[in-house]
């Protein structure tokens, strides 16, 4: 999965974003200032796929980092800006930033923007596989034993969450959080049961005796051992 450099000096934002993006399958490296960011970017072996960049930093600023990134390669940049800060948005885009998102933002909206930009740069080619099931995250395509599996947006989201957390018992609360606000639909506990049933019907050989998405009595669900 993509390796993201997060340049942000708010420790709370760094902790929350890192945890969320790692659950989405991204690798995160974070620094809190301009100098550290530029030093990392100069290292040839870091292999970043995208820079997530706050405009206002305690040490330096995001504009200088963006300018350096765009001067030295073809690395996508998303700016994090204060709400309503039109100057920062315009300046960042003029410097070559690929997108921006205003704080406070919905983490899932940020993830969607990250995926869109990675696709644009040809970097979103991650392939997740398990027991004949394959998820091409670049194309958003799912297949089983070579045959296409057609999923709704929420079914796809649910499968992706399971695939990224193989071997981990996921509570219903965790799954509801993962599906929250997807496709503009409200997901409650009863709806979750329906979506797990539908997903099993599409990916399991025997949905009545599932081997991929197993129920762990009293705890939740698990994909894999």
Protein topology:
Elements: E1 3-7, H1 11-23, E2 27-31, H2 34-42, E3 50-54, H3 62-72, E4 77-82, H4 86-94, E5 99-103, H5 107-120, E6 127-130, E7 133-136, E8 141-144, E9 147-148, H6 153-163, H7 172-179, H8 189-203, E10 213-216, E11 220-223
Parallel strand pairs: 1-2, 1-3, 3-4, 4-5
Antiparallel strand pairs: 6-7, 7-8, 8-9, 10-11
Helix pairs in contact: 2-3, 6-8
Overview of the molecule:
The chain has 225 residues and is an alpha/beta fold. It has 2 domains: 3-120, Rossmann fold (3-Layer(aba) Sandwich); 139-223, Orthogonal Bundle (Arc Repressor Mutant, subunit A), CATH 1.10.10.10. Helix content is 40%, strand content 21%. It has helices spanning 11-23, 34-42, 62-72, 86-94, 107-120, 153-163, 172-179, 189-203; strands at 3-7, 27-31, 50-54, 77-82, 99-103, 127-130, 133-136, 141-144, 147-148, 213-216, 220-223. The strands form 3 sheets. It has a 5-stranded parallel β-sheet with strand order 2-1-3-4-5, with helices on both faces. Helix 6 (153-163) packs across helix 8. The longest helix is centred in the C-terminal third of the chain and has 15 residues, at 189-203. The mean pLDDT is 85.
């Amino acid at each position: 999965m993509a390796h993201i450099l997060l340049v942000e000096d708010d420790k709370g934002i760094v902790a929350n974003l890192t945890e969320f993006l790692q659950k989405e399958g991204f690798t995160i490296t974070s620094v809190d200032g301009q100098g550290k960011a530029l030093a990392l970017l100069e290292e040839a072996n870091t292999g970043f796929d995208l820079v997530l960049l706050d405009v206002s930093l305690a040490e330096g600023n995001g504009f200088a980092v963006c300018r350096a990134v765009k001067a030295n390669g073809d690395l996508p940049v998303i700016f994090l800006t204060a709400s309503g800060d039109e100057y920062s948005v315009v300046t960042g885009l003029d410097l070559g930033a690929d997108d921006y998102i205003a704080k406070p933002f919905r983490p899932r909206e940020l993830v969607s923007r990250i995926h869109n930009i990675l696709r644009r740069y040809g970097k979103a080619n991650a392939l997740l596989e398990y027991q004949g099931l394959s998820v091409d995250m670049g194309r958003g395509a799912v297949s089983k034993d070579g045959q296409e599996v057609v999923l709704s947006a929420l079914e796809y989201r649910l499968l992706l969450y399971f695939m990224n957390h193989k071997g981990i018992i996921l509570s219903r609360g965790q799954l509801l959080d993962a599906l929250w606000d997807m496709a503009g639909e409200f997901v409650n506990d009863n709806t979750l049961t329906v979506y797990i049933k539908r997903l099993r019907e599409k990916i399991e050989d025997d949905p009545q005796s599932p081997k991929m998405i197993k129920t762990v009595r009293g705890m939740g669900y698990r994909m894999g051992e």
